[in-house]
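S1.2 Input.
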Amino acid sequence: MKLIIIASFIILLHALFLTSDAASKNSDRQNAVYKIEQGFVDANGVMIYYEEFGKGKPLMIVHGGPGASHDYFLPYLLPLARENRLIFIDERGSGQSQKLEDVSKYTVENMVEDVEAVRKALKLGKISLLGHSYGGVLAQAYALKYQKNLSHLILCSTFPSTSQMNDVFKKMEEKMAPSLLDRIKKMEKDGLFGHGMPYEKNRYTNEYMIAAWGEGYFPYLYQNHPDPNYDPVANGNMAWDLYREMWGSDGEFIIDGNLKSVEYVDKLHTIHVPTLITCGDHDECDPSLSKEMHEKIEGSKLIIFPESGHMTFVDQPDMFIKAVNDFLH
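S1.3 Output.
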């Protein structure tokens, strides 16, 4: 009888050990696996695409362009998922989000309402909001209207004033080689759209994309880690209808679309949420713009990444991830 009891006890211990080991392995798996939730939010009658993954408090990330998509953040921002619940969206008319027949509805103000609709639909509560390039403009506009819904604001390589950004572009042109500037100006004078095959007529010509985004912009995009896969023509795979409405149709070195309404400098002092401002020391959005935002937003933190262009998270990935995590946590 005693032997039977001992044997039963050993079997019970073994079963408990196996259960404990299985639970431990399952816990390890849960800690190591990051599942992506994908979907659409019907935001004010516009279907907005989102991807969500990560662990922690919500950090929504809005992209640049305007007219790009969230894809260019990946894989560079993936490490943020270890400490943050990341929510990427494609802005209206961009990426996988709904395109609109009425292009006049592509405005910063409408996109602010889309961000708010996503926040509500996903029941995120207070969010941290990170915006890069044009996304930083959108993040500023959101903060100016809905800062009660923000815990943190992160403005990356962006501008608070279109008129000031146009001044930066003028200085950029002044530094170009005369032969490059002559080519760019000639193409702009001849008109940038309506050339080539029917499928080419509603975008820049390949020649202009190479001159503007390849030769003109490239030194302001990358410094420390130039992307070997960067292709100025492939960069033209974006929402052109939206881009022309917001940026304008007269070239890369002047914003004369509806983004002309972006003049936030005199309003920035009303932002009181914790704010991090970052840029590269060779940024397309000149560091002087970030310094001004830092001066206007009381208590904000400014980081200028060394040997870095507009794509700071590509040029200095470890520095960028650490800066964001340190600020948020």
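S1.4 Remarks. Strands lie at 37-43, 46-54, 57-62, 84-89, 127-132, 150-156, 275-280, 301-305.
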